[in-house]
Amino acid sequence: MGIVRSRLHKRKTSGGKTKITRKRRKHELGRIPGNCKLGTRRVTSVRARGGHFKVRALRLDTANFAWGTEGIAQRARILDVVYNATSNELVRTKTLVKNAIVSVDAAPFKVWYAKQYGVDVDKKSKAKAAAGKGAKKGAKKGAEKKFDVAKASAQLKRKWAFRNKTHKIEKAIEDQLKLGRMLAKVSARPGQTGRADGVILEGAELQFYMKKLEKKKK
């Protein structure tokens, strides 16, 4: 017949027009894009072919982000969409799509890092801001989430000493931990899976996107 599924608009190999003998099937129809935005979580389900369901995110504000070199993942709050190679409009509207560059809350990673290596990245900044009243107030508010390194057991301190012999952290990542914001890339598809999970940027990839953001500021 010359009719192929979902190719009713195509011409024949001879160049002639295909005679359409049927309407489009349900699975051949397009849908309006989800355009997942940054906000309080709102998810909907869409029926797909074969009785399956897609989970379409309309609003998301938290996700799981993997720290590759450390081999861990933490659930963190998405603070902002900072870069998208496709269009600046997706940055302006804070749209979450795959490969979007976002800044995430570094607090969960700080706590994990302190527990794993016994290093409080905020220690230096605390010493500098000790004289300020605002710094003291902020310390009281965030005291519940932080891990007190000084109260660790002797056994845990021995573990830290052993781990720190071979462990190194990238300076750019350490600076981000101190600032409280980390750059990450969304690797999931929010319009298909209802999640905006991703990975923390490191190494050459982190340097590349940092340069891009600096150019945007200028």
Q: Fraction of residues in helices?
A: 25-40%
What's the alpha carbon Rg, rounded to whole Å?
24 Å
Low-pLDDT residue intervals, each spanning 5 or more residues: 134-144
Might you state the CATH topology name? Structural Genomics Hypothetical 15.5 Kd Protein In mrcA-pckA Intergenic Region, Chain A
Largest sheet: 5 strands, mixed, barrel
N- to C-terminal distance? 60 Å
Helical element count?
8
Query: How much is the average pLDDT?
Result: 87
CATH architecture assignment name:
Roll
Strands across the major sheet, in which order? 4-5-6-7-8
- Secondary-structure element order, as H and E? EEEEEHEHHHHHEHEH
Count of domains: 1
Give the class-level CATH name.
Alpha Beta
Describe, in plain words, how this protein is organized in 3D.
The chain is α+β, with helices and mostly antiparallel strands. The protein has a single domain (32-217), classed as Structural Genomics Hypothetical 15.5 Kd Protein In mrcA-pckA Intergenic Region, Chain A (Roll), CATH 3.10.290. 33% of the residues lie in helices and 22% in strands. The protein contains 8 helices and 8 strands; from the N terminus they run E-E-E-E-E-H-E-H-H-H-H-H-E-H-E-H. It has helices spanning 88-92, 107-117, 123-128, 133-141, 154-166, 171-179, 190-193, 203-217, and strands at residues 37-38, 42-47, 53-60, 62-67, 72-83, 101-105, 181-186, 198-200. The strands form 2 sheets. It has a 5-stranded mixed barrel. Strand 4 and strand 5 form a beta hairpin. It is elongated, with a radius of gyration of 24 Å. The relative contact order is 0.16.
